[in-house]
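Reading a protein record of the kind used here takes only a little practice. Think of the row as the fold of the chain written in a discrete alphabet. With that in mind, consider the following protein and its fold in token form:
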Amino acid sequence: MAVSQHIWHCGAGLPGDVLIADLRAYRYAPHFHDAWAIGAVEQGCCEFTVQGAPYTARAGELVVIAPGQVHTGGTAAGSLAYRMAYLDPAWFQDHERALDAHGVRRAGPVIADAALCATWLNALTSDEIPAAQRRARMSAAVFGLLAAHGRTPDGGNEGGCVASGDPAGVVDLADVCALLRERMAADPACAPDLEALAQAQDRHRTTLVKQFARRYGLPPQAWLRNWRVARARALLRGGLPLADAAQAVGFADQAHLTRVFKQVYGSPPGVLLKAGAGSQTL
């Protein structure tokens, strides 16, 4: 890959964190984010998967991935440059409800709209601009996306990170999977006993693992590892030291967190912390 960087802006507190990731060191394992991932392809052709299905986004196109959707990072045979926004779901939902009280469903995961892509690239500039200007550009970009490519809600579920509303007391295997994910989401530091949980429902551990992976895109341990990283990122952005964040979410040590963090986000947590400190000057 000739071009191997992308820029991200994370969280509702825009302008948020500006990170540069070296995609050549990025491991393209399936993962998810606890945020809306919206990317604008600036150069090249980006190949990735969402929920196991392959997609291609080209220069001038947008990538839109919902919170909790399992996907792989973008790869390319040649030059590739894209910019990503990782937006807090509540902040994104505020924009939806400003257009429609019941929210707006999005198209995606690839949207061919060169003008809108240019709007996103402008909002995601790496130039140091005032925070108010950054927020205005991001809001305009989100509204542009929803207005041009939204549709009326149909009651479907696009897959949030935290399970809610799933029955927990029914002996159906799908409900056992929902209960397991709910427990892991509530306590990332937990170490669920899959064997005991499966036996309690008169099931085999392998059956439980396969059913969970089919429903949520990753096996339980991989899902939990990804969720731990997501929670650690939130703690780090809140000012918790790296070693304390690692312990809080269940990693063995900060080196373990750093390794998995880079696999999921393309940059080590130290880059996030440095970017967060720099954003305070805007």
Observations:
- Residues 131-149 form the longest helix (19 residues).
- Residues 173-217 form one domain.
- The chain is about 45% helix and 20% strand.
